[in-house]
Write a structure and sequence with these properties.
The chain has 410 residues and is an alpha+beta fold. 47% of the residues lie in helices and 15% in strands. The two termini are 39 Å apart.
Length: 410
């Protein structure tokens, strides 16, 4: 792995940092999250038309830039620094890869260019608080069901030559404002129970959406209600959706890890700046050894998380990687940095209106949506078979997996 950034990657980072620094300060973030959409459409247009950010990791054949997940993760590190409220995560990280991987030629040609240029936003609607489960982040998703029976969720049935959806999905990222919904629905009844994905465009009859109050207002969420709504099946009925969701989850985890480490780095910068300005007993509080030690601990955690996030982004561009593990470490680093920011800002840091709480809420909100870290790690251990004699078990048995000639002393 070459840890040096290319000239193109450096330019992506520099351009985004300049744009977001000018147009996405704390006051602008608070104004955007209070708007009906939950983000600033003008900023989204600038990111889309000026920088091509929504299509950064989409192929050029569909109007994208043709970069890899690595570049998308680096870009999201910059959006994470400012906690920029945009539809980027829901549209480009969660929804577009599924359409690219599972959609028919006509669906790709009709939807991906509009997603790439930012004229169409999209959201992945998963029933209930089960996004991390559906994406395979906190457990194997082979048993995931989008709904059915008394469990509720979203159910799909055939009607004439098409499909109809009925049910509800809550906590859908950008679900209240997205122009296109990609809905996970249960079909097949009890005997042939399975999950399929369906496209529901804006304006479809029977669809109702409301914005929900979220702990992290910079990640707006909506409740989607479907009442006998006509929908288009993504791909074919033989499509195996769950492996695609798990692959998307690993990529999303790598991107989210970079976003979290960007936020952690920025809140550390703000805390160091404050510690150098706030005076107590005739000297800056940053000159006290106890404060220095706490800031040094945060710095070490953030830089370790940054290395992990970069490795995950590099690995995700080459196949299934270590996204879940990286996300666990980066979420913990963000939580640590944000908690110390609140503490070291003193009495003012404990007010909800202070900017430190924007980062604290991002850390807590991401753990609720995609974590928590201990479950992300448990899933990674389960996948590698660390405690069940799988390929990774050799890490605890002197470098060789069971059955490979290694004996464990009693």
């Amino acid at each position: 792995m070459d840890t040096r950034l290319t000239a193109e990657q450096e330019e992506i980072r520099r351009t985004l940092r300049e744009l977001l620094g000018d147009r996405c300060g704390p006051a602008a973030v608070r104004a955007a999250v209070d708007s009906p959409a939950g983000y600033d459409p003008r900023l989204w247009s600038a990111l889309a038309a000026g920088l091509g950010l929504p299509g950064l990791a989409l192929p050029e054949a569909y109007g994208g830039v043709g970069c890899s997940v690595t570049e998308l993760a680096l870009a999201c590190e910059e959006t994470g620094r400012t906690l920029a409220p945009t539809p980027l995560l829901a549209t480009s990280v969660l929804t577009a890869p599924l359409i690219l991987g599972l959609g028919t030629d006509a669906q790709r040609a009709g939807l991906l260019p509009r997603l790439a240029d930012g004229s169409l936003t999209a959201a992945l609607a998963v029933a209930g608080p089960a996004l991390a489960t559906a994406l395979g982040l906190t457990g194997a998703n082979d048993g995931y069901r989008a709904g059915g029976g008394r469990a509720g969720g979203v159910q799909a049935r055939r009607a004439g030559g098409g499909w109809r959806l009925y049910g509800e999905a809550a906590q859908v990222l950008d679900g209240h404002s997205a122009g296109l919904l990609l809905v996970a629905a249960h079909t097949g009844g009890f005997a042939r129970s399975r999950t399929l994905l369906f496209l529901v465009p804006a304006g479809t009859t029977g669809r109702a959406r409301t914005r929900q109050t979220a702990l992290d207002a910079t990640r707006p969420q909506g409740r989607v209600q479907l009442r006998d709504v006509p929908a288009e099946l993504l791909g074919s009925e033989e499509t195996d959706v769950l492996p695609a969701l798990a692959a998307t989850g690993d990529t999303a985890a790598a991107v989210l890890a970079a976003e979290a480490v960007g936020a952690a780095g920025r809140v550390l910068e703000l805390t160091v700046e404050y510690a150098g300005q706030r005076r107590q007993f005739g000297r800056p509080i940053g000159s006290f050894q106890a404060v220095k030690h706490r800031l040094a601990d945060v710095y070490v955690a953030v830089e370790a998380a940054r290395s992990t996030a970069y490795h995950a982004a590099w690995a995700a561009a080459r196949g299934p990687g270590a996204g879940g593990l990286a996300l666990a470490q980066c979420l913990e680093a963000l939580r640590h940095a944000a908690a110390e920011a609140v503490q070291l800002h003193g009495g003012i840091g404990f007010t909800w209106e202070h900017d430190a709480h924007l980062y604290f809420k991002r850390a807590a909100g991401d753990e609720l949506l995609f974590g928590p870290p201990h479950r992300l790690r448990a899933r990674a251990a389960e996948r590698e078979g660390l405690f069940t004699g799988g390929e990774g078990a050799g890490l605890f048995l002197g470098g060789a997996a069971p059955g490979a000639g290694t004996e464990v002393a009693g």
